[in-house]
Specification:
InterPro entries: Homoserine/Threonine_efflux, LeuE-type. Its main location: membrane. This protein has 206 residues and is mostly helical. It has one domain. Helices cover 83% and strands 0% of the residues. The radius of gyration is 17 Å and the shape is globular. The termini are close together.
């Protein structure tokens, strides 16, 4: 994997992490109701769930790619198509979002476990990884190191983004609740998803 490919993946990870989803909603609600310590426990739980998905996807795709380059190309195109489809869905998504679903105080352990469950039960998370990894893994090069680099990049980016969401939630909660503003964000991120999908579909490994 070249530095250019890694940088492209870094930008893609940032876009995907910034897109409002179950992890972002969980982080924001936790920060608003339980403060930064609760948010820290929640973020740690999200990354634990994400790491499990990365391992599962890495093992499965690694075996598949080692046996069939055709399967690699098929999954690459399917992943690009999925990103474009997801962009269309997010563009059309409603803007309402409820940030007041958890008013009761919970221990950091429970917040951690809940966040792990949020990511593990989110099908989009593992499909994201299955869609993205083939775009940046070079089949004829050692794959383990590539998976480690992509996995660590994904986790570090998501940690930073979730910290940003937690800070945002505590400071401008009223703005976040606005359905019009959230709908505008959905359109922006939907457009970015479609752009990334189109670029990845046209890209070729060196």
């Amino acid at each position: 994997m070249t530095l250019e490919w890694w940088f492209a993946y870094l930008l893609t990870s940032i876009i995907l992490s910034l897109s409002p989803g179950s992890g972002a909603i969980n982080t924001m609600t936790t920060a608003m109701n339980h403060g930064y310590r609760g948010a820290a426990a929640s973020i740690a739980g999200l990354q634990t769930g994400l790491a499990i998905h990365i391992v599962l996807v890495g093992v499965g795709l690694g075996t598949l790619f080692s046996r069939s380059v055709l399967a690699f190309e098929v999954l690459k195109w399917a992943g690009a198509a999925y990103l474009i489809w997801l962009g269309i869905q997010q563009w059309r998504a409603a803007g309402a979002i409820d940030l007041n679903t958890m008013a009761k105080t919970q221990s950091q352990g429970r917040l951690f476990k809940r966040a792990v469950f949020v990511n593990l039960t989110n099908p989009k998370s593992i499909v994201f990884l299955a869609a993205l990894f083939p775009q940046f893994i070079v089949p004829h090069q050692p794959q383990l190191a590539q998976y480690v680099v992509l996995g660590m990049t994904t986790i570090v980016v998501d940690i930073i983004v979730m910290i940003g969401y937690a800070t945002l939630a505590t400071r401008i909660a009223v703005w976040i609740k606005g359905p019009r503003q959230m709908k505008a964000l959905n359109k922006v991120f939907g457009s970015l998803f479609m752009l990334v999908g189109a670029l990845l579909a046209s890209a070729r490994h060196a």
